[in-house]
Amino acid sequence: MLRGTLPEPTPSTAWFWEAAARGELHVQACDACDGRHFPPRPFCPSCGSRDVTALRCSGRATLHSYVINHMVPKDGDGPYAVAVVRLEEGPMMMTNIVDCPQTPEALMLDMALEVVFDRVSDTITLPKFRPAGAAASGEAA
Amino acid sequence: MTRPLASIVGAAETTRLGVLPDMSELDLHADAALNALADCGLTPADIDGIATAGENPAMLAQYLGITPTWVDATNIGGCSFMTHVAHAAAAIQARLCRTVLITHGESGRSRVGNVPWTVPAHSLMGQFELGYTPTMAATLFTIPALRYMKTFGVTEEDLARVTVVQRQWAGFHPRAFRRDPVTIDQVLTSRMIAWPFRILMCCLVTDGGGALIVTSPERAADFPTRPVDVIGTGESVEHLMITEMKEYTASRAFKVAGDAAFASAGIARADVDHLMIYDAFAHVPLYGLEALGFVKPGEAAGFIADGHTAPGGRLPMNTNGGGINYMHSGMYGMYALQEAVRQMRGTAPAGAQVQDAKISVVQGVGGMFGTAGTVVLARR
């Protein structure tokens, strides 16, 4: 199973990782200008307001762009996509696409995706995405 | 055209380029610096301004025996050296110093005395990107390309052609790492790195360095070398994390830096005789040609296919072969500047020298499309 460097949360991001561990994906919403942002920060990069709150996402996204990395780490399986998805709520985030062949034919830009949660340590659960409606494989990555 | 902001009076690369396991990164800086000083007849005692990226300029000053009154350690990736030229010009005009040394040295391939680029796990990049196992530039800088290709109908053949055309230029340069002619088919059957990018669409990983000596336009006439005037500069930053690039089909940093440079130089796109666009990967010159306004969005691949950037074309681009063919130690910007200086001095190798070229635009990029620096040079 593919394992990248594990994130180390900071005081301003811990809430995001705590929510992910519960199986919830959040972005940040600005109550002053209605901007939505990711990654989280304790203010809004659109208007500068500190009046920001967590917005729980639907988990729906589309595949915005990606590459299929052939420089596979020693402990990793075959070539894999390093992808960027556009969340239904607006922001983009990096991820891996799971439950899907890692081929240009299967990974079509703009395809509908849904979030799945990959628990990689006691504190870190990585949001990943699979084709919408795909049958769960029993393993997230 | 406006009055020059500064002049480049000394320019040199390291004595050797390529695979240099016998030289440390610091020694690559020093070798380039000594070559540039010799180029214009100076010694370290003549230098009162120093700028570099990656290496600490204090270490470099100590090593070379320089006592500066102005120091710039700006490090925004491979375009840092474009910003050093801009900052040096401003510092000279503000009388903070008179003669600036800008150096680059990098043991990118051999990793001798190398200052590695690290991403801490608690940084935003560490938290929100590294868990998905990108293996740095080749899988981050390249991510926007598929969106660009789908939007504009650009093909893998179009990406391959960037390498093929630039290889024609590299063939004129004895010091280029990859010089033999290459076909689109050869590029498209070379080893896969990160689809759609094959290894021949990716920059080299080599060892080397370069240095520039910058002074005022007035003093430039006192040097033995033909001065190259800096007539415009621009710089900008868009993001560090590729997920925060606003549009995957265009670079905001390129556009902001380029527009500022053209405005300060007081020139039009049609005035440009020679162009260098930092080509970390084959898609970057496509974004650059469009962001700088030489073609409209989506037209760059066709512009290259029509031969306009190739030898004999009306906008010769990346005439050293680029980072894909000539040299790329990790931060390529210095080598693009060196080639532009050669072109404006009229000292590029036979075949590569653009006849009667009077204005050169050098476009740098840093990070993963995140930063940019633009320098406009003029023949005196």
Account of the protein in words:
Chain A: InterPro entries: ChsH2_C, ChsH2_Znr, NA-bd_OB-fold, Thioester_dehydratase-like. The complex is a heterodimer of chains A (141) and B (380). Helix content of chain A is 6%, strand content 35%. Chain A has one helix and eight strands. Chain A has a five-stranded antiparallel sheet. Chain A starts with 13 loop residues before the first helix and ends in a 10-residue tail after the last strand. Chain B is α/β, with parallel strands linked by helices. Chain B is 33% helix and 18% strand. Chain B contains 14 helices and eleven strands. Chain B has a nine-stranded mixed sheet, sandwiched between helices. The longest helix of chain B has 16 residues. The chains are: A mainly beta (141), B alpha/beta (380).
Largest sheet of chain B: 9 strands, mixed
Q: Whole-number average pLDDT of chain A?
A: 92
Q: Kindly report how far apart the N and C termini of chain B lie.
A: 12 Å
Helix content, binned percent of chain A? under 10%
- The quaternary organization reads as heterodimer
Please give the count of helices of chain B: 14
- Beta content of chain B comes to 15-25%
Please give the number of β-strands of chain B: 11
- Widest sheet, order of strands of chain B: 3-2-4-7-1-8-11-10-9
- Numbering strands along the chain, what is their spatial order in the largest sheet of chain A? 6-5-4-7-8
Report the average pLDDT across residues of chain B. 97
Domain ChsH2 rubredoxin-like zinc ribbon (chain A): 17-52
Domain ChsH2 C-terminal OB-fold (chain A): 58-118
InterPro entries (chain A): ChsH2_C, ChsH2_Znr, NA-bd_OB-fold, Thioester_dehydratase-like
Protein name (chain A): DNA-binding protein
